[in-house]
Amino acid sequence: MILRSSDEERNSAPFTFWYWMYGAVSKPGIHADLVDMKNIGLRGCYLMPIRGTSDKPEFKGNANQLSPQFWNDIDYTFQQADSLGLELGIHISDGFALAGGPWVTPAESMQKVVWTDTIVDSKDLKGLVLRRPESYDGYYEDIACWAIPLKNSFSYPRHVYHQQPFFLKWNIADSKTLQYTSAITRDKNGVFRSSEPCSILYDLGNIEIVRSLQVIPSGNNIQCQRLTVSASNDGTNFRKVIQLTPARQGWQSSGPSFTYSFPATTARYFRFEWTPVGTEPGSEDLDPAKWKPVLKLKDIILSNEPKINQWEGKTGASWRIASSTSSDDVPDQNCVRLEDMIRLRLQGDKVISMINSVSKHSFLKNGGKIRILRFGHTSTGQMNATAGGAKGLEVDKFNGEAVDKQVNNWYRKFLDRPHSSVVKYLHVDSWECGTQNWGTDFLQAFQTRRGYGLLPYLPLYAGIPMVSAERSEKVLKDIRLTVNDLVNKVFFRRVKYWGMRYGKKVSHESIAPTFVADGLEHYRYADLPMGEFWFNSPTHDKPNDMLDAVSGAHIYGKNIVQAEGFTEVRGEWNETPAMLKPLLDREFSLGMNRLFFHVDAHNPWLDRKPGMTLDGIGLFFQRDN
Questions:
Q1: Domain spanning 159-304: CATH 2.60.120.260
Q2: What is the DSSP string of 450-475?
Q3: Predicted local confidence at residue 168, as pLDDT
Q4: Which of 15, 124, 239, 393 shows its CA 20 to 30 Å from the CA of 480?
Q5: d(CA 565, CA 535)
């Protein structure tokens, strides 16, 4: 017989996530929920209010987050949990993803690099008024403005016809006359769609040089990233140019485009063929491939401009992993030389002078067209989307003062309540707020960590190759490394600091493949690494979440590995212990040793069964079920 101490039994006891839905909270329901947790042997719960009273007014909730009634209910909860000997954890923000609130200004929120690309005559440079790049809620700040030589930057009319027997040509940008083959359709939103093998043919009108193409997907469609591209001079004899290979991408890796680079190809006709055959099975790092193979495509843009292969992910704008750009794709002579760049001084939106000497820049002295790249940053616009009364912008993960502000405006308020000693944990849930590739003092952080300045390489954020393909890939990797350094050494380190200051254990869930970061390093700053596993939900299950948590615990010497367990995307109300145990045993064998049942939705009613749910998601692990 193996005898276990009471401390060991308590350490192994499971928890649950306790969600307060839509501000529909009642004291009788709180008491009943907590007593039920105690009676079935739970050690405690992580309390997270989800969405607000206005999201589902039919529930007649009156405990909107941060309202007097909300705090009254929190006080009662703390008192009841304390009397029952239950432990509580509080999330870092309202909702469960991830760390934001109404106190976060656009300047304090997650940032991204934005730019405008303008072609002008060099003689019109001084006094030129430039377009301002994209802004969020009016917030925008300049980083730098550069003039560079105009190299291979133009577009041409693009005409399309589908495979036989359909030969009608039409301009894809002005498609007033549309006809469809049986294989390809086009919906009212301009999305081309097919579930059968098909092809699209571009007739450029003349023989042109093409060096890159941009795929504009519909949503997160993986199939439009699998096209076989062929070229022909006569429209009959085709040669293969490139087989498009999707970048590795997670469930939040969608973006405006995917750019592919290839050796300069001279042709008049370009054919794009697709078949569902050969689609790689979906996985956590190829999430869109989990769905039925259907081609959904908004546009394909051909260009003779050299581009960094898959630059959209390499700049940190989205979590993607793709092959490097080779010198065959982008020869050195097609890259912008640092000595050819002229930095411009702006006053508002007007160019007023050139900062560096222009005497050696022949492309200015000789006149002609030049390219103006104005770079700045703005908010990503990401919010803690599942919040209610404390919903707002996601805090800049590279800004320590903003992170402190987040903790003080939400988490600390719980610690100021009576019986707050029952709160033992500060939790950061699964990362569901995308990524960022700029933030407070990013230029200085890059200089300090990488040993050189980033400013001259800003065109890389627009996919423009600099110096050489190899040098461009090196700088882009350094950008991603800096992003990783900052999210860990600013955001996670500050959260850990506040946990230590308040005497609370810090719990972190997984960060990749959503934020551009190492999937393990942030567990250095967690007392309690956590992952997640799903039940009967193959499209949403993320096995690496658990493997990251287990591996992070091993690397950084953590003896508890937590799991948010049995999340279910579409509950059937048919779950039994016999169905759950094999999956639980597997997770235990992988290294998990503390289970959090997902999810116990607070039931404010005593006369309605099974009561409240997290919409259709969860195991419905709650009283009255």
A1: yes
A2: HSS-SGGGGGGGGT--BS-HHHHHHH
A3: 29
A4: 393
A5: 8
